Each structure stands twice: as structure tokens, then as C-alpha cells.
What we know:
By secondary structure, the protein is α/β, with parallel strands linked by helices. Helices cover 45% and strands 11% of the residues. Keywords: Hydrolase. It comes from Capnocytophaga cynodegmi.
Amino acid sequence: MTPKYFIFDMDGVLVDSEPMHCQIIYEVFQQLEIQFPKSYIEETLTGMSAIPMWEKIKKDALLSKSVEELLQFHRTYFYERFEEIEVTEVEGVKNVIQKLKNHGFSLALASSSSRKLIDYFTKKIHISHFFDVIMSGDDVKFSKPFPEIFTKVAQWYQADSKNFWVLEDSKNGVQAAKSAGMNCIGFKNPNSGNQDLSKSNLLIHSMNDITDDFIENLIKINEKSSGK
């Protein structure tokens, strides 16, 4: 039997936190007098971890402050604000987690967010115990859309990348998963902005789309790719 692995992104997949992230970054832009619209945040920055994100913003906005200064300002402002903003789990995601477990999948989480934030959110919605391994933006040098975070999960399992399915809601996340040699399900979460998920193998619009039959199809695709 082909081993079965499934990796969840966090923001926009497990928790509906993308609007919160977008709003806080937009407020930071206003504080720093960066004249970029929210669409720039949604379409360009979603799925990126903090350092490469601020490297890109610094370059695009021609800022004189260092990346370290910008990052520190963002983090300080973020942790002052984020607990005031209500963030809920994505509807139906716990059912998906349980169904995947029932079908024998090993589950992992790979998010560009910081370890601190991942711990906060996964404990808040009581899901941290489902995952064998959690990789954060703190664990990698190159953020999504680079594949490093996913290849590290595969290395942790000592497993072939082609035996993995990834659930992502952002263009950067889908690109990272595909570059890692993994299959990817694109989740068209309206709260994640207008993301180009065209490179994903499959597309869903709701967690309810991931039925038992849908999961059986994932297993068949894996077995076919493994020649079984």
C-alpha cells in the first residue's frame, strides 16, 4: 500500500486569518506611509513569510529603512493588534481532518507564519494534536513560493514527495507545493483574495467538497503515480 501524506497550510485553510493579516499589513503601510492598495497585499504577499515579504515591499516601495527595522515594526504592531481581531476556523476543516485520519493519511502543517502564531492558532481551535510535524516560516530560509518548507516535511517523514497532497489557498503556496513535486489541492477561499490557483491539480470551493469519495480519488491518484 502506498503511504499517504497530507499537508495543510494554516492561514486561509485551517483558520480564516487572511483578512486579519491583510488588514494589519495595510495599517502598517499607513503608519509607514507606503502607498500600496490592499490588492497588492492580497495578490502579491499572501503566503509569504515575514522576511522575504518585507524584502519585496522594501524593493517595490523604495524604502530607506532596513528589512530588520520594517520587520520589527510589523511584528510589534501585529502582536499589539491581532488578539483584538476575531479569527475563526475555516468551516468544515475539522471534518476534513477526521476523514483524512480515517482513511489512513499522516497529517502535517506547513505555514509561512511564525511558530508563535501557529502555536497560538492551532491551540485556539484545538487541532495541534492532529499533526505529526509542524513546519513554520521560522524553519526555512526560503519562503513560499520556494518549495523548501514542503521538502523539509518530506525529509522529516523520509518519504517521496509524490506521495503527498497539499491543501493551499494562495498562488505562492500552490507554486511551492508543485515545485516540491507534490500534488496540490487549491482552496478558493473568498477571504484570501483573488488568488491564481490554476497550477493546482484539483480545485475546491468549500471544505464540504472533500468527501469520502474525493479522498478515495486522492489515494487512487497516488497509487497510479507510484505504479501500483
